[in-house]
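step=encode ok
step=design start
structure_in=
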């Protein structure tokens, strides 16, 4: 009698990569947007002056020969994680972690450029894709008209993480959830849910809510144990995910954790719970599965 391949348990984990740099994240040569009234707009006029896509907002400058410099934001919103866009000193373009853009840019020659004109589901809303980095949609300026971000020539190569205290958590995320950079640190677990604050950052879950962390909540199998459907929560639109399997639970060596499924990286389902069906390799008496959260557009 053939022994079916049955996982003994399922585990959830989260991983993140960190990168800090002062240079523009915009791809060269994929650095142009288009306005019918002003022509090409260069989001990377130089590596230092160009636009930086951060974890919660944009910063840096765009250059257009017909309008001059357009400032996307200072990089230092008053609260540390989002521009309020209610004063001449606290303005800029925000994004929600999932690539949707809002807020205001400024040009001394043409005035405000509005990235927040659209509803969340408008197909023409300004945004960038978390997998490819490609921008799409439109921004609006009363003096120059529509700015087409999706002309096929604008792409960010990464989402920049600033982690000034080196604790494995981005500054913007810490300020958003704790109001400072000192409450959370290496090894802390603020809500005592068994997941470190750094793991909650990697999964973009709420470190102040003990019921919210990345975990597998159910697993079902077909009659022949050749497929498994895993359901896991809490998933976020700001993260990509992968499923991994192991026969030993070891980090390295024979039977170590390895990616399974195609595509390896996938976006979550709408809402906070995601289901994924995978094919189970046969011939092994037991296998273990886990879901891993991945920060998008990391170098």
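sequence_out=
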């Amino acid at each position: 009698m053939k022994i079916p391949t049955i996982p003994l348990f399922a585990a959830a984990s989260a991983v993140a990569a960190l990168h800090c740099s002062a240079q523009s994240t915009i791809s060269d040569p994929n650095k142009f947007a288009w306005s019918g009234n002003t022509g090409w707009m260069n989001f990377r006029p130089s590596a230092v002056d160009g636009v930086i896509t951060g974890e919660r907002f944009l910063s840096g400058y765009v250059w257009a020969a017909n309008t001059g410099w357009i400032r996307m934001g200072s990089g230092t919103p008053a609260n540390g994680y989002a521009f309020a866009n209610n004063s001449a000193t606290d303005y800029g373009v925000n994004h929600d972690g999932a690539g949707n853009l809002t807020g205001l840019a400024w040009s001394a020659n043409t005035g405000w450029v509005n990235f927040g004109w659209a509803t969340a589901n408008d197909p023409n809303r300004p945004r960038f894709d978390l997998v490819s980095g490609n921008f799409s949609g439109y921004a609006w300026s009363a003096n120059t008209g529509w700015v087409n971000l999706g002309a096929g020539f604008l792409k960010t190569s990464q989402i920049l993480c600033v982690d000034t205290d080196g604790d494995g958590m981005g500054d913007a995320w810490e300020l958003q959830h704790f109001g400072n950079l000192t409450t959370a640190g290496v090894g802390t677990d603020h809500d005592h849910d068994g997941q470190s604050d750094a793991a909650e950052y990697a999964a973009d879950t709420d470190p102040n809510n003990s019921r919210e962390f990345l975990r597998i909540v159910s697993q079902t199998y077909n009659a022949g144990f050749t497929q498994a459907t895993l359901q896991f929560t809490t998933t976020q639109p700001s993260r990509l995910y992968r499923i991994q399997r192991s026969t030993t639970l070891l980090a390295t060596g024979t039977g170590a954790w390895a990616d399974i499924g195609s595509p390896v990286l996938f976006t979550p389902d709408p809402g906070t719970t995601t289901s994924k069906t995978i094919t189970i390799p046969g011939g092994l008496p037991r296998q273990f599965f886990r879901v891993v959260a991945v920060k998008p557009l990391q170098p």
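step=design ok
step=annotate ok -> The longest strand covers residues 26-35.
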